[in-house]
Structures are given as structure tokens and as C-alpha cells.
Amino acid sequence: METSIFLARLMGIVCLVLGVSMLVERKMLLGIFHELAKNRTLSYVLGALILVLGLIIVLSHNIWENGFPLVITVLGWVITIEGGAYIFMSKHALEKYVGMLNNKKIYYIIAFSYCLVGSYLAAVGFAG
Q1: Alpha carbons 121 and 40: distance in angstroms, whole number
Q2: Which of 15, 60, 85, 108 suits 26 as a labelling partner, its CA being 20 to 30 A distant?
Q3: What is the pTM of this model?
């Protein structure tokens, strides 16, 4: 359970920071995401790093129990799959994926989801 608490705290804080930054700095982040989609080398390297981070979570915390451990495990798998996607996606597919973020509704749903998941994980991590 110590690993679960640690990961809840870590992932909670990271998700909160990412979510709030998405809410506050939309224009800047859209520019960064579009540059990422244009630069295949950068997206490949970022994908490799994301893949490693996801695998660290999955290999150290593959717990399929109800509650926050399940949230951590699912996030770990999502991060792993996202990293692999950045590695294998074509430039065109990556540009279409990033292009979805131009839709304000989709963008803000993602931002608020980060905030919600981050709040939940931080709350259970620091309360436990």
C-alpha cells in the first residue's frame, strides 16, 4: 500500500499542475502541442520517455482493486499506451490528434479531467 500512497501523491500533484496549467495557459500549450506534432524527432523522444514512465507505474503498481489503486493502474496503462502511440503514430496522425485540442470543448474536458483525477488522487494520497 505504500507504493499506492506514494503514486497517488505523485500522480495527484502532477495531474493537478498539468490540469491547472491547461486552464491558465491554453494558447501557449496549444502552440507547444502543435510544435510537437510538427517535429517527429521530438515526438518520438517524448513518446519514449512517456512509455518509460508508464511502464514504471505499471510494473510497480499493477493492482486491479476498486478504489484509488485501480485509478493509478488504469492511468499507468493509459500513459504507457500514449507513449507507444507517440512512437508509432505518423506525423499526419499526430497532427490530427493534436488538432482535436483546437476544439475548446474537448480541450477543457481534458483539462478539467486532469484536475478532477489529480484532486482525487492527491486527496486520498495525503489523507491516507
Answers
A1: 33
A2: 85
A3: 0.89
Contact 110, 22 (CB under 8 A): yes
Burial 95-123 (b: 16+ CB within 10 A, else e): eeebeebeeeeebeeebeebbebbebbbe
Position 128 scores a pLDDT of 62
Helices (H) and strands (E) in the chain, counts: 6, 0
pLDDT lower than 50: segments of the chain: none
pLDDT of residue 1: 77
Please report the pLDDT score of residue 87 as a whole number: 95
Q: How many CB atoms lie within 10 A of CB 93?
A: 12
Number of neighbours of residue 91 by Cβ within 10 angstroms: 12
Longest CA span, the chain: 44
Q: Tell me the CB-side half-sphere exposure of residue 10, using CA atoms within 13 A.
A: 12
Nearest CA-CA partner of 73 in 41, 121, 19: 121
